[in-house]
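Subject: Sanity check before I submit

Could someone independently write out the structure tokens for this chain? I want to compare against mine line by line before I put it in a report. The sequence has 258 residues.
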Amino acid sequence: MSGPLFNARGTWAIFHHELMRAFRTWIGSIFSPVLTTSLYFIVFGAAIGSRISEVNGVSYGAFIVPGLLMLTLLSESTSNASFGIYMPRFTGAIYELLSAPVGFVETLLGFVGAAAVKSLIIAAIILVTATLFVDYQIAHPIFALGFILLISAAFSLFGFILGIWADGFERLQIVPVLFLTPLTFLGGTFYSIDMLGEPWRTVALINPIVYLVNGLRWTFTGSSDVGIWISLSMTLGFLAVCVAVIAVVYKTGWRLRD
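---
Independent answer below. Compare away.
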């Protein structure tokens, strides 16, 4: 007699365990990124923003809200998912998971779903906190919600891949610290790439984070340096690539059964 096609209970067990870990360590998991982003709002939104009138027709404080939100979403989604799958590998508990009646889809939904939800909780807190420092509006709230969900899912998948690839705690930090965070800062978080002269504007367009930041900025302000459909296509393409890579990892057992 065959088992159920989808093990919902197994998915919930993984999801609940990973989500509760964030609340057990709430100072580092939730309070720390919110505090860091609040400091950005104070320094850039209040201090520097008082000396810059407008960027693309909106106040500087409102202009940087999507960029700072994107910075948090990318870093938190990636780190939560990478740490979540790395720890079972590090402790050896991954073998129990692989031998349990939980398939590829259930495992992925449990780990990636929890990482995405954690980053969404932090994003919601940051948006509420931002109202204390700057006056901003969300021009397209439905699009904003959808784009934030896509970004959280895509980079949680990316973090999942990173957690499988890493063979030490140092490697967990290599990609976020040396690549992801710098690319986000250079992706128009605090400025419009239209302010750049050539050839730097063309160089900036090579940075994939530019399209993500501008996509989210369009949902907030109604304008951006890059078309929204280009940004959406880039996000969906990245999401599809991550799913394909994870499917190959599970099919081959790379770094999972070694």
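---
OP: Matches mine. For the report I'm noting this point. The radius of gyration is 19 Å.
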